[in-house]
Amino acid sequence: MTTPSAATPSTPAAAAPAGGPGPTSAPTGTPSGRGSLGPVGLVLAGGLSVQFGAALAVSLMPRAGALGVVTLRLAVAAVVMLLVCRPRLRGYSRADWSTVVVFGIAMAGMNGLFYQAVDRIPLGPAVTLEVLGPLALSVFASRRAVNLVWAALALAGVFLLGGGGFESLDPVGAAFALAAGVMWAAYIVFSARTGRRFPQADGLALAMAVGAVLFLPLGIAESGGKLIEPSTLALGAGVALLSSVLPYTLELLALRRLPAPTFAILMSLEPAIAAAAGFLILDQALSATQSAAIALVIAASMGAVRTQVGRGGRAKRRLSEPEADVR
Q1: Pure H helices in 122-229
Q2: Cβ-proximal residues to 228 (8 Å cutoff; 6+ apart), any chain
Q3: pTM
Q4: Counting CB atoms within 10 angstroms of each CB, which of 2, 7, 29, 115 has the fewest?
């Protein structure tokens, strides 16, 4: 598994931690317009994978429980990633290990809280509430005023997708979804930092192992022997590949070249993808209001991408033009 050479995110939220760059820190800088299209595609592919994996996980919960599904997802994904990446364990600083451990904690918390939410409320509203975390990150981390406009437009779509309010939802489930959003924002920040400190996807594999170890006792306590039933294991492996291995790898690679605020606004597409997954797999139909909300979040995401690409293109043109004569 190889990682293309790329610039690191240049935002406060994704700034390099104290202690200096890791063994394979990428050069800093703003991605060019042409280079920005690649990471955008990675983010969208990761979103499709994770939401269809979440729909599959909902169908698995009656067998293994919410904590059991999270345990299967993290454990299988960790085994796959460790076998594929075979990360080395020596040569890293204490700051490197602290970063990857916090990344693993954020990953485990995001998964556990979200699955507790979808065990109580529908998939679409759960993702709608969860995405508020990345949207808040885009507002606080961005240095460009125009990103506030795109974040506001996406936020309007998010609330519209929720029907203008969430009073009819289980309050505990809604609280779990909001808490998952906080952990999602932390995941974005520490995924970027881990990507700079560890080569290829080694940091992701190690962080996933940390998350799996943390959740294993919880899954065993809730589900026990159900976790090793062949049919449950097979479905759990499918959830792990769709919801962890593929999307986390794609997002980690994208965050090496895509600024964190743009990445966070792209995450506003998740409610739309979740609604489509719910319709196709869980037979949850879309209303006219939900369709309008999807249009809003897509418009916000396209605006964010065009802003970033345009900024890179202007910088490239300025570099190619002869220096002006100053009098």
Answers
A1: 123-130, 132-141, 145-161, 171-197, 202-223
A2: none
A3: 0.69
A4: 2
